[in-house]
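Table S2 (text version). Query chain:
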Amino acid sequence: MTLISNRDKGLLAADYILGDQVTRLTCCFHLHQNLKHFQNVEHLFWLLVNSKFPNAFLTKMAELEALHPPAARYLQWLDRSLWVTAYATGQTFDYKTSSVVESINQVLKFERQLSILNLLNEIWHILMHTHFQRFTMACKAEKDQVHTDFALVKLLESREWVKRNRIGIATQIIAEVTQVNDKAYTVGLAQKQCSCCHY
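Corresponding structure-token output:
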């Protein structure tokens, strides 16, 4: 099992109980946020995170050190096995952040206060209810309908979301995409990579 957190003190008790049964990793989204005050380094951060081999990591770290020594020192202070793919030992299934856990915590906001057995029971009921609703909607779809109503709504929401993004050019090789919720992502034009990790 892999535990990704923002070095959260509240998880220390669970961390101690699980012991060697869990691999610990640091949430890369929060590390990325910490780097925001270092200018023009964000595009290199995700390349460092996603380095699959030590040599690739060391090459990118040398680039960062030449570009911005304080930012490089900040990252060198961190244990590489907690945030770099090349050194991490736990299975992450390409998740680098704690956002999935935070989303689940929001969904189970009230259920989290229950005992373990009651919590598991509530999770089962929530999943069954959701699956049944989506299955019912899918069965009602017309034969020539490509998407279910649920999928179509999500697709249209995503398209509208993209239309509202603000795009700015930071330098000749770096662009910045700002969403309506003010989350900003850096796009390395030369590397054709976005700090959102989806593109």
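Notes on Table S2: The longest strand covers residues 174-178. The beta strands are 2-5, 23-26, 166-169, 174-178, 184-188, 193-194.
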